Amino acid sequence: MAQRKIDLLLIEKSYDKALQEIDKELVANPSAELYYKKGVVYKNLQNYQQALEAFMQGLQYDANNIVMLEETAECFSILGNNRDAIAFYDKALQVEPNNLAMAGKLGRVHINLEDYKTAYNVFSGIYEKDSSNVYWNKQLAYCSYRVFQREQARDLYEKVLEANPRDHGTYINLIHCYNWKKEANEIMATIDSGLVQFPADKELLFEKAMFFYKTKRYGPAMLQFEKYLEQEKQPAFETLMNYGISTYFAGHEEKALDIFGDLKLLSPNDPLVMYYQSLCNRKLNNFEDAIELMTFAIEATVPDYVSEMYHHLGQMYGQQRQFKESIEALKKAYELNPGKTEVLFEIATTYEEYNSNKTLAMNYYRIYLTESGEAAKNAIYALDRIEKLKEDLFFEE
Q1: What is the mean pLDDT of residues 112-140?
Q2: How would you write 93-160 as a 3-class SS string?
Q3: What is the pLDDT, as a whole number, of residue 396?
Q4: Domain 1-97 shares a fold with domain 322-396
Q5: pTM of the model
Q6: Which of 140, 175, 291, 307 would give a disulfide with 123, using CB separation of 3.0 to 4.6 Å?
Q7: Which of 3.90.1150.10, 1.25.40.10, 2.30.29.30, 1.10.10.10 would CATH assign to domain 1-97?
Q8: CATH of the domain spanning 322-396
């Protein structure tokens, strides 16, 4: 009688009352079935921690209950504990080895853990027993791609789309399975088929634009990027960059210059933006701007730490009394970062020690003082050395 009342409350979704009745009955007659029903109530309420506790208690009464093993595994997975979920799915499959639905859930947990090789093995085993299930085939296709079985992934995704042409994600995944150099026709056919099902879909438009871009068909790429940008109001910086490059190579330099101008506002020191701004200006015969921008692009391309590397290299050569190599490295350090004027002082002192022509050292002391101005840390020493070198040169005459 009590069980019937509980079942009726569950059908009516009167979960609070059902829990009260279940708890009453558990005091008198605890059983796996009651704990299972309690777990189901909590699961329906999305209280997965309580549901898990109920299922675990139920398993103490019936350790091989396949339904509760599955529910326990599922709760663990929902709560982010995929490793314990695997343990319970494995145990359930020991009870029912041919339960393909259970195996599919186990495979998904391995995917969640990014253990694609194990997931691939699980879904391959399922495929051997049932190759008609679209959902499982899709999982196997994904795992195949992740374990570098590209051709198998391609064939499976094609099979999935044949069965379910409204599967948007599979169009995107299949496009990425094709070799864009060898299977260009297949890529375009897949994109166009997808656009028939999902007209003006921004992801498919993006794939089409990127395909034209990769294959250096810049005119069509420009047009496709524009169609994509009509749908995507928050495009990635890199996408706008590719749009600008396509526009430049398609021969629309003024239009490209506007695109790169907008990109420069987003990233003022991006060397590639300045590089293409320079190329656009060159095509438009704005040579002064082109030269200035190309200079900035070159300077921005070299990270600051490269100058510091040459600086340290120069000092190490100096410590080994390899003065010629030291000066070359120090000059490179200064060339890459003209703001490091103290390097000029080091060049001067190195010349003074290694080269009998003291004019070189004196000139570098002067350059050091001029370029550093009031910021010169060794100004007094440099001035003293200039005077001393002048005297030496006078007496040598």
Answers
A1: 98
A2: HHHCCCCHHHHHHHHHHHHHCCCHHHHHHHHHHHHHHCCCCHHHHHHHHHHHHHCCCHHHHHHHHHHH
A3: 57
A4: yes
A5: 0.79
A6: 140
A7: 1.25.40.10
A8: 1.25.40
